[in-house]
Amino acid sequence: MGSTGAVGGAGSATVVSQPEGFDFTKLSESGQLSKVKEMQNAMGQTGDEAGKINVSSSNKLYVNTAKSMCINLYLNTDGATYDSKHTDWGHLISEGWVKDAIKKLDKGMKPLSESVMGYKFVSPEGFSKMTGLEVNEKNIGTLINLMETDKSTQQKTNQLLQNLDYTNKGYTSMTYLPEHGSYDNMPIRLNFVMRKGSGAIVTNNHPEHEIVGARGAKYNFTGARVEENYSKAAHKKIKQLVVDVYI
Questions:
Q1: What CATH class is the domain 24-43+109-246?
Q2: pTM for the full model?
Q3: What are phi and psi of 47, to 5 degrees?
Q4: Residue ranges of the domains in the chain?
């Protein structure tokens, strides 16, 4: 895996230790919901700022729909990439709707009441876009095997990551429960710590247990390792490259 150059400001990061975040996985389901409500109250949020779950897809804003991908594509390409025929469950998504959605999401963001742990599963190509590193579907398996068996590969990968950062022009969606099953068959898992004071919406999207971070978040990579995790989507244990990131 070699560097292909800087992406999103990569190459000038200052390496610092990753802060700790609240771990939702240690709570029962009722405890998790109670903690979510506690954070929403502290942040002055209802939990529906990113969209309500119990409405039709045509009326949903961001959570649990293809609209989130459309919005983030628009933001990450500075509006240059927009498919006027893009649909969400058969409903056309206009550029005007996207611009209005961005305004609503920005307005709903509040400073996070405390640092939290979150997780996101990404494809090799998605990770490559973040880091500028040559990772793809063909070589990710080889990298995972080398990371697990060769200390020099582990050290080199960590050194590369610790000298990179990435600024996400879109919104950062993450789950506070890695086992919720959405996209968990991807070969790469980002383990986030979103720091207190970061702009966020703590949503009521309990199917995905989702927190949405404000656009423009800067990802600081602190290291990576290989872990074997159970994938609900794949119905088996799979080995993943787990990358620690703080925002």
A1: alpha beta
A2: 0.88
A3: 95, -10
A4: 24-43+109-246, 50-108
